[in-house]
Specification:
Keywords: Coiled coil. It is a single-pass membrane protein. It is found in: Membrane. Its main location: membrane. The structure is a single chain. This protein is α+β, with helices and mostly antiparallel strands. Among the domains are: 65 residues, OB fold (Dihydrolipoamide Acetyltransferase, E2P) (Beta Barrel), CATH 2.40.50.100; 116 residues, Orthogonal Bundle (Helix Hairpins). It contains 5 helices and 14 strands. The strands form 3 sheets. It has a 6-stranded antiparallel barrel with strand order 1-10-13-12-11-14. Strand 11 and strand 12 form a beta hairpin. The longest helix is centred in the first third of the chain and has 57 residues. The radius of gyration is 43 Å and the shape is elongated.
């Protein structure tokens, strides 16, 4: 065969390979999409104290596994113990104040009875003087004086009754349910809660990370000092919009983790995000800012999908947050599904190299 014929044959072979590869790429992107932009993500819970104080003891080490409600570190309790004792004294003082008010109420009621007795006595005296003044037996001055004493006694009754109302208002409800004592008890509960908050606990089961805390550091309330990576993980994969045109929820998937070369794990699609940040509109009163690009071919938009494992479901607990993965989707069956599985196995073997 002449050299030019050999060259033409190789050109034809190359063109055929290119055409087949291009056709395979187009078909694969639609019916067996694959994404290397995949990660394992674990929820991260920031650890911060609810009260401020100096760190007294750190009970855990960095990257240590912890249980929910386990104490991670504690703050200096002395200021909060003093506040708790002060609140207890306030409750005791409120109880004593209530006893004093009870005694004042009893005394005021007794004063009312005494004043009413004086009124009754003076009323009879007025009636006697009125009968005597008609016969001119007593003077008009004595009559006026008796009437004045009677009105003064009535005023004393009203004053004593006002004292009863005043003390009852200060006392509030009977028993331990009055306002003064409830306020003191609420302050006591708050002081006890603040003291309990000096023991900072993990809210979730996971692994402590980025712990830089040492005894003597000052912890500000609400400021994160560490993080706990939750054991439960989520696999997220970013695909081009076109690649998801045939994908539906519960479609099967093959997952290859960089940390587990040579192995392919089964999973399924559980969710596709409703949008991305670039598509978020904020009602901030600003005018539209159209996107300008001088590129002939613009970048494709990627959408996020969420995958769960259907076998080896405990595997994600052993992988760190951010671990890389490759996700192969199987939106259709038949040959496309078989080729997709083959792609996943080839990729898993390549991970032995990189």
């Amino acid at each position: 065969m002449a050299p030019d014929q050999v060259f033409k044959r190789w050109v034809h072979i190359a063109l055929a390979v290119f055409a087949l590869s291009f056709a395979y790429f187009l078909a694969a992107d639609l019916w067996m999409p694959v994404s290397t932009q995949s990660r394992v993500l674990h929820p991260v819970v920031n650890i911060s104290s609810k009260v401020s104080g100096q760190v007294q003891t750190v009970y855990v080490k960095n990257n240590q596994s912890v249980e929910a409600e386990q104490v991670l570190f504690s703050l200096d309790k002395r200021p909060y113990e003093i506040a708790l004792e002060k609140a207890k004294l306030a409750v005791e003082s409120a109880s004593q104040t209530n006893l004093q008010l009870d005694a004042s109420i009893a005394a005021a009621k007794a004063q009312v009875l005494a004043a009413k007795a004086d009124v009754d006595e003076l009323k009879l005296e007025v009636e006697r003087v009125e009968s005597l003044i008609k016969s001119n037996t007593v003077s008009r001055q004595l009559y006026d004086q008796t009437k004045a004493n009677y009105r003064a006694a009535q005023a004393q009754v009203e004053a004593a009754q006002a004292d009863v109302v005043k003390y009852q208002a200060q006392r509030g409800k009977d028993g331990t349910n009055n306002l003064l004592l409830r306020q003191a008890q609420n302050a006591l509960q708050d002081a006890q809660l603040q003291l309990d908050y000096t023991d900072v606990r993990s809210q979730v089961k996971g692994q402590v990370t980025n712990l830089q805390l040492q005894p003597g550091n000052y912890a500000q309330a609400g400021s994160a000092v560490a993080a706990v990576v939750v054991e439960k993980g989520d696999i997220v994969a970013d695909f081009r919009e076109k690649s998801l045109s045939h994908v539906q929820i519960n479609n099967t998937a093959s997952i290859v983790f960089d940390a587990r070369p040579g192995k392919v794990f089964k999973g399924k699609v559980v969710a596709i995000d409703a949008g991305v940040k670039d598509g978020q509109l904020n009602a901030d009163g600003s005018l539209a800012n159209p996107e300008n690009s001088d590129r002939w071919v613009r970048d494709a938009q990627y959408m996020r999908t969420h995958i769960v494992l259907t076998d080896n479901m405990d595997l994600l607990e052993t992988l760190p947050s951010g671990a890389r993965a490759t996700v192969q989707l199987h939106p259709v069956g038949g040959v496309a599904s078989w080729l997709g599985s083959l792609q996943a196995h080839v990729i898993s073997m390549i991970h032995y190299v990189y």
